[in-house]
Amino acid sequence: MIPKNIKREHIIKAIEEIKRNGIPKGRDSKKFLLKFNGEYYPPKYVISLANKCANGEMLDPAQFSGGKETNDFLRNLGFDIIEISKAKRKNKPSRKRERNLSNSQHDERCPKCKETIRKLLEKIYGKVEENYKFRVGTSPEDFKNSPYYSELRKIYKKLQDHRGYRDFVKAKTLPNCDFFIPNPGFIVEFDESQHFTLPRKLTLEEYPTNLKLGFSKEKWIRLCEEIDAKDNDPPYRDEQRAWYDTLRDFLPTILGLQPTVRLFAKDFVWCSLDPENPRDVGKFKEFIEYKNAKLTSWLATVIPHLDEKQFNKLSNEDRFNILENVVNYILSQIDSNSNGVILFPAGWFDAQHCRASSLYNWIERNITNLLKNYKDREIIISVGIDGRDNKDQIAIAVSKNGIKAIGRKFYPTGEEKGFIEVATSYLSKENGRTRIFELNGKRYFMCVCYDIFGIKHNELRNPGVDIVLNLIHGFKKGESEANFTRHGLAGASAKWKCRVFASAKFFKPIPKKWPSAVYWNSDKTYSSSCTYTKISINPLKEFYLNINDIEISVRIFKL
To answer: Which residues of 161-170 are buried (b: 16+ CB within 10 A; e: fewer)?
Structure first.
């Protein structure tokens, strides 16, 4: 078994050691390769070495399996695994195959990629200026009258102090941008690996929290750490490139443009998109507009598909590890200037025979430590806890500053009456906390599973909340999530005149059309016309993760 304390940084250190010392005889891989920065490494040997970094000794290859166990472990840490046969295939792929290629078969300097991006931008926005020149200076003093002059001067000095190069700016005016779209007015930069350097990381870490960006600052910082490119011709080239990229990021605040969008060359085989294919154009438009969406507030629903027995065997530490991976991925995909709520299902953590409250401090400590990595953002995680063999059913909300809200189930099912301990009312406090919390001026109300029917059936007044969160335990084979959605979620939305968001564990395939966000704009709390089409709120973005063989659907909604 692979030790769970092996982290991404240990894998990267192992790769660096392989680059220095090579691969011992007999430790090559015959079927799979780990791809990192355009180079390939044997996955199982990498983990053996990584264990030395994490635990002080090489991990005996007999103690863990290659193939699925090793590959899933590395993928969950964000690494690419490819089959050797696919990496070495020389035949030109079909168009269908080409769309799914990893960059193992593609050169990031492909000239067709930038040409394709230009054509796609023209299809969407009309006029596009390639290699556009902004007549602005390159010295911090040229921006003395801008709102971010002091920040730019600080970043400039940081670059000067990094390696002692004081005079790394040579151009009088800012070098050309890759693309400029006059209407609606934003820059698109196509970043290849040489842009991800330590000096670039230093600049990104100094960006003010209110600077609007059309890319994920956290993701770009992580790529700088992973790629750590070096260009010493001239010796100060990395500082120079980092400064010019910084100016392009700040330029919108000076010229009144929309945030600069950045595309990573290795994120996608861009030349595989067809500018004459409406579907491809739509796909690219969604990507660009998502990057440039002015997200100030959002909500993510986390919907896992798993086997019930498999989930029950997971320890709370395993479950937190999954939560941590999901949260880190979500925040790498979201505008770094935005704040949001991440909603997990009910019963995600289980105190088993003990009271649910026995886990409060442990959950608070772990989530606050996780969110402190995102100190410039306000993120709240809402997650369910069961205890005393399901007699306790709790929803808890935690931010980087600690517990924000706690709610106990207040409306039991018929089978639960007399068995579970319920809250005395829908507004009663639990452990001194209300179940309502606030973020970005919006008030959130947490329901535990069947509570949503309590809003619908009882004459409960809306206590001044804007959004209802429903943490659902799950749906098993033979159970209809449709009735729960059309009666419960839509019914509560109709009663309180607000949006309802839900997360649930699915112990069967997740229906593709099942909405995790609804709004029922009707006086009737339920009718035959209450269809998914009429009540669904479409997500801004949806993606799928596979963590420890658990498939997870994540949907991001703009609030």
So the answer is: ebeebeebbe
Closest CA to 102 of 193, 188, 34, 196: 34
Q: What is the pLDDT of residues 131-160, one digit of tens each?
A: 999 999 999 999 998 889 999 999 999 999
Q: Which two tokens stand for residue 108?
A: 């990031």
> Highest mean pLDDT: which of 57-66, 79-88, 470-479?
470-479
Going by the DSSP 8-state scheme, the letter that residue 174 receives in this structure is P
> What is the C-alpha to C-alpha distance for residues 292 and 272, in angstroms, rounded to an integer?
22
- Counting Cβ atoms within 10 Å, is residue 480 exposed (0-12), middle (13-18) or buried (19+)? exposed
The residue extents of the domains of the chain are: 8-91, 105-287, 295-558
User: Do β-strands 177-181 and 186-191 pair in parallel, antiparallel, or remain unpaired?
Assistant: antiparallel
Contact in structure between 553 and 533 (CB atoms under 8 Å): no
Q: Measured between alpha carbons, how far is 154 from 147 in angstroms, rounded to an integer?
A: 13
Encoded tokens for 436? 């309502």
User: How many angstroms separate the CA atoms of 472 and 462, rounded?
Assistant: 20
The HSE-up count of residue 535 (CA atoms within 13 Å, CB side) is 34
Query: DSSP for 125-147?
Result: HS--EEEE----BSSGGGGTTST
pLDDT digits (tens, 9 = 90+) for 419-441: 999 999 999 999 999 999 999 88
Amino acid identity of 30? K
Residue pair 58/51 in contact (Cβ under 8 Å)? The answer is yes
Output the CA torsion sign for 394, 397, 400, 403.
negative
Residue 21's pLDDT is what? 74
Place of tokens 């709610």: 407
Read off the pLDDT band of 292 (50, 70, 90). Answer: low
Run of H or E including 342: strand 339-343
Tokens of 129: 């200026």
Q: How far is Cα 8 from Cα 324, in angstroms, rounded to an integer?
A: 13
Q: What is the DSSP secondary structure assignment for residue 511, as one 8-state letter?
A: P
Contact residues for 478 (Cβ-Cβ < 8 A; gap 6+): none
Pick the CATH number of 295-558 from 1.25.40.10, 3.40.350.10, 1.20.120.530, 3.60.110.10: 3.60.110.10
Section 278-284 average pLDDT: 84
**Cis bond upstream, residue 304 (ω within 30):** no
Return d(Cα 484, Cα 452) in angstroms, integer: 9
Strand partners, 406: 396
Q: What is the mean pLDDT of residues 106-123?
A: 87
